[in-house]
Structures are given as structure tokens and as C-alpha cells.
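hey all, quick one before standup. I had two proteins in the batch that finished overnight and I want to keep them in one place so we stop losing track of which output belongs to which input. First protein below, input sequence then C-alpha cells straight from the run.
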Amino acid sequence: MNTINQLTFRHLKQNKRRTLVTIIGVIISVAMITAVTTLGVSFMDLLQRQTIANEGEWHVLYKYVNMAM
């Protein structure tokens, strides 16, 4: 394992520009995934709150119940 680590660090030092571009790419990718996930969750929460405000907070809806009982 030590040999692999030494080889990896040597290549990272030799290719500084590629290493920097790769690190920046990973950072941007993680930020984009986080932003899209946060946007999706926020939108779902907005829809849920609007439905509760418009139609009420129902857990069960009984249809076709005979009221004479």
C-alpha cells in the first residue's frame, strides 16, 4: 500500500494543473448535486404546504359513507 501512495503522490506533484482541475471539478460536481437536491426537497415541501393550505390537512378520506347510521 505504501508503494501505491508514493506513486500517487509523485504523479500528483508532476501534474499540478491536471490535479487542480480535477479537484475543482469534484468541488463543482458536489456543489451542483447538493444544489439540485436542495431545490427538489424545497419544491416538494412547497407543494405539500400549498396543498395543506388549500385543501386542509387530511389523513383519511372516507367516500360513500351512509350518514344515516
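OK second protein, same deal, sequence then C-alpha cells:
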Amino acid sequence: MERTFEIIFDKLVYSCAFETYRGHEEFIPDYFLGFQLSGETHAFHDKERMIIKENTVVLVRKNQLIRTVKHPSKNGKYQFLSITLDQETLRQYAAENRITADERFSDTERLFFESDEFFRGYFVSLLPYIDKTKAATSRLIVLKVKEAIELILQSNPDFKNLLFDFSEPHKIDLKEFMIKNFMFNVSVETFARLTGRSLSGFKRDFNKAFNITPKQWLKEKRLEEAYYLIRHKNKKPSDIYLELGFENLSHFYYAFKQKFGMTTSEI
């Protein structure tokens, strides 16, 4: 069935679908403000699974991994609209308005909430650009992004401590992070960035923590999890191989047989 993922202008993205489908792993480099026009987005990341229901606004943190499943509404349509709040724009906004972060924003704060008339009005104002009934000038794009920031701060002034924290990512516990995120099929470079390390620093620290290379460990960890799910949870390989970071089913079968000396059906 038809589905679209369209960049309307450089910071506005519209996603539409008419059937349930699983999205690819995504690395989110910048904050973005999203609005669920219709249907539901089921999102999974290292901390939790969350359901973004229709008429919900979500502020998504930068520098994280996320996996989604998109479900159309009862009328058969999925629509999600998002606008990116990139670092350069946030820095400029903070300078113009003399705003600084004065404390660390809580990592456990939930960042999605029901839309009010201001947020709904804002996203409705973007629909003409999606419908191609109006073209966006560069000046208007800047104004619409700034309007999004204003609405976020109006909804919760403490969001300034999230959006305007420009400190460098600090090194986090590599071992804990990898155990939580091994199932995401992203590059080693992305894992390095998310743990606050250069690629060489990540590989060095990884070897100290696991005494094995990142690629080898990821393959072993995913296969061990697969064995557990098939053997003890009666899961089918076709239902779990993508969830565990394998790109195709035939490669999964080959790697599984190579590691355990038996096929998935034999265990």
C-alpha cells in the first residue's frame, strides 16, 4: 500500500501511510516537535515503549535511537507532522532572547502531551505547505521554527533547560548503554557518538569493557538473545530478526547455525 515520507521544507517533515508498517531504526540528531494528526505511533527506545496517540504533541530529544511502528486510524490513514529544532537555530534563539539553561533537565521527564488549541493551531497552519497550496519562503521557515520554540516554552518554561543546554555530550556508562541498545541496527560510529566518545575512544573503552570488538559483540549478543526468545519464549525467527538488528532473515539463519551448530527449528 502507498506510504509517503516527505520533506516539505528543510525542517518540516510529513509522514503518511495507509497500512501498519515498521519503521527503520532512526538516529535522531536534533530535537524535533511532532504532532500525531491521525493514527498512532508506537515508539521504542532504551528507556521505554510509548504510544503517541492521535492529537498528541511530542518533543523528541536529540541524540537518541528510536524504532517505530506506525498504525493508521480507523478511517485507514496515518499522519505525523514534525518540525526540526536544530542546534544552530536554538543557539540563535537563545542569544536573541538572552536565555540560558540554569540546571540539568530531568532525563525521566515525559515529553509528550495532549495538544491544546495553541499547538493544534500551529500545526494546522503548516498544512497548506503539505497540500502544496502555499510555498514557504526562507524567512517564513525561520519564523515558524521560532514559533514552535515559543509554544514549547509557553507550555513548560523548564524546557529551556533541555533545549538550550549546549554542553558537550558527557561520557556515559558504555557497558550499560550497549546492553540496553544492542538491538538497534546502527553503525558503530553512531554508538560512539551516543556514548559521548570519538570512534577510537569508543573502540578502546569497548574492548576494556567486553574484551571483544564492537561488531563481534553485537553479533554474539543478538544471537544469544535470539536463542533465548526462540527456545524459552517460542518466538518465530521471522518475528524477531528485525527487532534484534539483523538486516535479512537468510543472514540470521546462517549466523544462528554457525554459532549454535543447529538450526532454529532444531532447538
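Flagging for whoever picks this up: The mean pLDDT is 90. The domain at 174-260 is CATH 1.10.10.60 (Arc Repressor Mutant, subunit A).
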